[in-house]
Amino acid sequence: MSRLFAAALTVALAAALAVGAALGVVALLEARPDQPNTPMITYEQAGRER
Question: Which pTM was predicted?
Answer without folding.
Answer: 0.57
